[in-house]
Amino acid sequence: MHAILEGCIRNDQKCQKVLYERYYGYAFKIVFRYIYRYEKVPDIVNDGFVKLFKGLKTFNKWESTNLEASFLSWLKRIVINTAIDELRRNNLMPEIGNIDETIWEHTTDQASADHLLRYKELISEVKKLPPAYRTVFNMYVIDGYDHQEIAAHLGISVGTSKSNLFKAKAYLQKLLTKEAQQQTGHAIFRQR
Fold this sequence. Notes:
The chain is an all-alpha fold and 192 residues long. It contains eight helices and no strands. The protein folds into two domains: 1-98, Rna Polymerase Sigma Factor, Chain: A (Orthogonal Bundle); 114-192, Arc Repressor Mutant, subunit A.
């Protein structure tokens, strides 16, 4: 990993290609949580990698015990910021589109398959949130930003960030409760 990153700093195209191909899927999934138009995501991911390659000299975690984990955290922040910039350019307009099932990894392990199914269901429900709620929810719950960071990134107050998170959670709870009631109703109906 260290050699690949050093090669990228030297603008070695082979190293850049290796890094890009290795982490493209990771970046894609992160951006897709913010931008639900499948056709727009690759452009945003590519913009994120351009920013990464330009700013790699500022990456300051070379001596960390887990270089790859530190790098992934840094990459995650870059692609999230790139996605947020895109949302800002569009005034947080809702992104409409379906989740393309081919982007999810296939697994034969039942526990992993169950986890993947729950993740897909959660993302499907998160996509129904209004854009401002969805962005704050993604940043706080999924990506681990605190309200101060969210406020700074989105140009909103900390109170607005907290309010949007509260409303997003309430909205999701309502959606999930409604869905659970519908499934329970269908199950009872089938048993009769």
